[in-house]
């Protein structure tokens, strides 16, 4: 199992570190802000990168705060001043106004949220700008605005729809929710947010994760017959589309997390057969049937808490990102912990934060150069903050 995981990781690594041509290298040597790593860093050994990151970190002192999402690899997480899920990290960034620079080791939408919630003098850096989130990319503002218009055409002006976006979405989608009486949710507070949304309207448009939306709506008591799935590529494909929308209390955007979609019920059956005392602990971005077959489900922070509070000898099969599961297993040798999918690869977008990128941006800061800053424009940030503050007020 370990060999397969390691082979998977190595093949990704080769794709992540680009080999630049001499012409490209020359262009980079003259660039002020560049978004493909210079060959110099790409060729450095792990030991050299480690030494350079530590030295740059020490030189920068309190001027920089490094945030590490739980799904980051150990070589990155060891430099994080704080670890957390996306929302906890954005809040922590806001709580460190003395840091001029926030280096966010996570993915793009997280760096945007940190920029929105941090003080104006702070600059947020995403070491590799190619670190996006495949789920967040499944909904864009043009598609969401088109959906909004089509829903109102189909349901009439009293459609009474509240838009809810998952934290895993671009800043302009959070702003869309802010402008249209909507709200943001995380996987921890999704049930409370859904309750809030139904106190403000008769229907909810939930994006971009169909599965978090469905699992949360079921928990709230909405039956599957009152849910409609919105496929942005072909929204009215079904002959009964209008009827389904009329019936729907919640409209679920057809988006998903590639990492959490790998888990299935067969894996749960196998784990239970092999380890009768096993507890199955899964993330709500998994499919409905996986969540229903599990013993417990909840956000990344919930998963960590369950394991931290469990007695020695507990056995867990966990359905979430592999770097986090491995770290939990390492930090809790008194328990037996493994990933429900034995050949799961790391989240391919989180994995793009390679130590070479961290070394590059930190050494840039030491040299007075801000590389790969993420900045949200004022208007978008304002409305996104409105939607985030509605969530914080719950
Ligand atoms: S684990 Fe899934 S939701 Fe999280 S960053 Fe990766 S693709 Fe996006």
Fold and architecture overview:
With 394 residues, the chain is α/β, with parallel strands linked by helices. Helix content is 46%, strand content 14%. It contains 18 helices and 14 strands. It has helices spanning 2-16, 22-30, 39-42, 46-60, 74-77, 86-94, 108-117, 141-155, 171-179, 190-198, 210-220, 241-247, 265-274, 288-293, 300-309, 322-331, 355-366, 378-392, and strands at 64-69, 82-84, 101-105, 123-125, 161-166, 183-185, 203-207, 227-230, 250-253, 279-282, 296-297, 315-319, 336-339, 373-374. The strands form three sheets. Strands 2-1-3-4-14 form a five-stranded mixed beta sheet, with helices on both faces. A five-stranded parallel beta sheet has the order 6-5-7-9-8, with helices on both faces. Strand 1 (64-69), helix 5 and strand 2 (82-84) form a beta-alpha-beta unit. Helix 4 (46-60) runs parallel beside helix 17 (355-366), helix 6 (86-94) runs parallel beside helix 7 and helix 9 (171-179) crosses helix 18 (378-392). The longest helix has 15 residues, at 2-16. The two termini are 43 Å apart. The chain binds iron/sulfur cluster.
């Amino acid at each position: 199992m370990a060999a397969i995981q390691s082979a998977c990781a190595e093949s990704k690594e080769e794709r992540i570190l680009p080999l630049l041509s001499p012409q490209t290298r020359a262009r980079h040597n003259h660039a002020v802000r560049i978004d493909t790593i210079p060959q110099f860093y790409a060729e450095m050994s792990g030991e050299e990168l480690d030494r350079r990151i530590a030295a740059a970190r020490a030189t920068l002192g309190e001027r920089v705060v490094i945030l590490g999402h739980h799904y980051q690899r150990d070589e990155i997480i060891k430099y994080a001043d704080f670890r957390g899920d996306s929302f906890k990290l954005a809040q922590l960034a806001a709580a460190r106004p003395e840091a001029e620079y926030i280096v966010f080791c996570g993915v793009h939408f997280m760096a945007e949220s940190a920029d929105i919630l941090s003080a104006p003098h702070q600059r947020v850096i995403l070491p590799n700008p190619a670190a996006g989130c495949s789920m967040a990319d499944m909904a864009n503002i043009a598609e969401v605005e088109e959906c909004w218009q089509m829903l109102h055409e189909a349901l009439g002006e009293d459609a009474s729809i509240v838009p809810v976006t998952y934290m895993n979405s671009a800043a302009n989608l959070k702003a869309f929710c802010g402008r249209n009486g909507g709200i943001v949710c995380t996987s921890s507070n999704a049930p409370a947010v859904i309750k809030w949304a139904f106190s403000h309207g008769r229907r909810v448009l939930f994006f971009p994760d169909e599965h978090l939306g469905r699992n949360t709506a079921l928990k709230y008591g909405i039956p599957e017959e009152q849910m409609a799935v919105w496929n942005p590529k072909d929204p009215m494909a079904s002959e009964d589309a209008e009827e389904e929308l009329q019936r729907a209390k919640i409209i679920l955007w057809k988006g998903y997390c590639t990492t959490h979609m790998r888990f299935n019920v067969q894996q749960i059956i196998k784990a239970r057969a092999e380890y009768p005392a096993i507890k199955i602990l899964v993330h709500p971005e998994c499919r409905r049937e996986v969540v229903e077959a599990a013993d417990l489900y909840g956000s990344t922070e919930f998963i960590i808490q369950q394991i931290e509070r469990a007695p020695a000898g507990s056995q867990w099969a966990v359905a979430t990102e592999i770097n986090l599961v491995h770290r939990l297993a390492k930090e809790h040798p008194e328990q037996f912990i493994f990933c429900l999918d034995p050949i799961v690869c790391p989240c391919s977008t989180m994995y793009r934060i390679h130590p070479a990128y961290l070394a590059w941006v930190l050494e840039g800061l030491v040299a007075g150069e801000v590389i790969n800053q993420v900045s949200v424009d004022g208007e978008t940030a304002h409305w996104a903050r409105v939607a985030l503050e509605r969530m914080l007020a719950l």
